Fold these 2 entries.
Entry 1:
Amino acid sequence: MYEVFIGGWSNSKSVIRKNRTKPDVAEVDTPDILSADEMRGFWIRWDDGVISVGKEGESSAFLTYADPEPFGIGYFGVCTGWGASGEWLIEAICVGGHDRYVNPSAPPPPSGVTDIGDFCWCDASGGVIPPGAVEGGKDDESLYVGRAYHEGALLPGKVKPGHAVCYVAWGGGEHGKTEYQVLCGCNPVWVPTTGNNIPHNAIPAGETEDGEPLYVGRVQHEDTVTIGKVQPSHSVCYIPYGGAEVAFPEYEIMVQQN
């Protein structure tokens, strides 16, 4: 874990501490940075293993730490110390950005429906599951809808937190990727289909190395519900399972609710 202290040690310094051990990994003198007479604002950000701390209204940080061995942040907590009071504003930033898709190969949508909305794919790694992640499968633990790059393709697959990877199917094999994206912030539904019958509101989630759109599918297999990729030109849903890429002509596909 990382700890950030602002105005500690009798309001004399601020530090960043890793794994509750000393010495502190970053420290700076900040005399009287806090005040009993006025509310003062601060921000804390982290990205790619760099933690930065700054004052409200100032873009530059007064305290930073670049971890040479960073780890994913999945949880955080905030508190004041020694009877003080404070207010907290938590901003959820989706690093992966938003994708707005229109299904180019599907039939025209019903009247009043022009596309299937915004979807947030959040960057993650090492088994981290961002807030609002979409759960789509189950084996000995919950599986989440993810995607990862492999051999020039962006492939939908299953994020398995216990293995700290996103598994994708490609070229007959199952491939575990430690860096991936997780679908967040939406409530899709799953509908049964077969072959290349892609519903108009199916959610595109990637593409092959040749540029063919891929969709998110899932199947029941070996007492699991496993997430994989639907490739329309092959008329199947491929799932990564047991080290192999397994094809199913009957499957469920993820769609946006109307």
Entry 2:
Amino acid sequence: MSFTGFPEAALDFYDDLEIDNSKVFWEAHKDVYRDSVAAPMNALTAELADEFGPAKVFRPYRDVRFSKDKTPYKTHQGAFVAVGPATGYYVQIGAPGMRVGAGFYHAESDRLARIRRAIDDDLHGAELEHLIAGLTRKGWEVSGDQLKTAPRGFAKDHPRIELLRHRSLTVSRDYGFDEVIHSAALVDQIRTHWRETRQLLNWLMQHG
């Protein structure tokens, strides 16, 4: 199946699911999820796989075992292309539209320590700053889980304290409801934008 875009029905499905996140609704509309969400996402990631690698298209069910929120279904469909542990490219569609991202979403303590040592290093840290600044100028938004203060062993006035505080580090850009998401041209747009993040991922893999 070639990717031809996500239909409007995909966005409508998630609009409705946010209102009625129930098994009754899901069972009545699972064909819409299958045809308008899951099938296009699989087709999209398949067309990107030649350059970026195979994607994991996430299951639509939430793990509610340890959550106070017991709603059974995710209100978005995401897919992730790994280049390393919890590091890679991301794409998502939901009620707010579509967005793409890249970065590392989790790091064990030893890996996080290596990343912070590289950020602390004047050469490697400045390189990361330069990469982040370049992506920001191109329209990427920097985010990720952060400590409220300096990590242990680093001064609060460190010149790269904002980067050192990250426990995860991602960049993302929002397509919203841009018409491109409904067309085959989305493949090339995501390809172009993911390429922009490749040097960031390379830095994270080299120093993590």
